[in-house]
Design goal:
Oligomer: single chain
Mean pLDDT: 92
Helix content: over 70%
Order of helices and strands: HHHHHHHH
Structural class: mainly alpha
Shape: elongated
Low-confidence stretches: none
Length: 137
């Protein structure tokens, strides 16, 4: 994916829409929720809780569900989202921006970033959007 701020923001928005649509994907699937849970290696109760909004979706789960239920465009959005998250640090470093400045603009702290940098699933989509929106590239 070419580094383009508008394309990044559109991909993030599309990824957020995929997450919002996951309950519908599960309802429309040919397999039962038990079968889907087994196929993506998650417990039925965890999948049910996520479907009903009682727990947040992890990136890995969204990726597995899109591989199972999504079309090519949706699979591409999920793949590109991870590229965007992984591109945050390089963009900051290339532009010589202070971490504290960019994260303050995004309503976060450097500590938030350190926690999230350990796992892609720790990121909230709205945080990724705010950071990309605050960056200049």
């Amino acid at each position: 994916m070419e580094r383009d701020k508008q394309a990044y923001l559109e991909t993030i928005d599309n990824y957020a829409q995929i997450i919002a649509d996951l309950p519908q994907f599960l309802d429309n699937a040919d397999d039962t929720i038990h079968e889907i849970a087994s196929k993506i290696d998650i417990s039925f109760s965890a999948l049910s809780n996520k479907k009903h909004g009682r727990r947040d979706w992890k990136y890995e789960e969204v990726n597995k569900l899109m591989q199972l239920l999504g079309n090519e465009k949706q699979k591409e959005v999920v793949k590109n989202y991870i590229l965007i998250v992984n591109d945050i640090l390089p963009i900051i470093l290339e532009n010589g921006i202070r971490f504290s400045f960019i994260f303050e603009k995004a309503g976060m702290t450097v500590g938030n970033y350190q926690v999230r940098s350990r796992s892609i699933s720790a990121w909230d989509v709205s945080e990724v959007r705010r950071i990309i929106d605050a960056l200049k590239f």
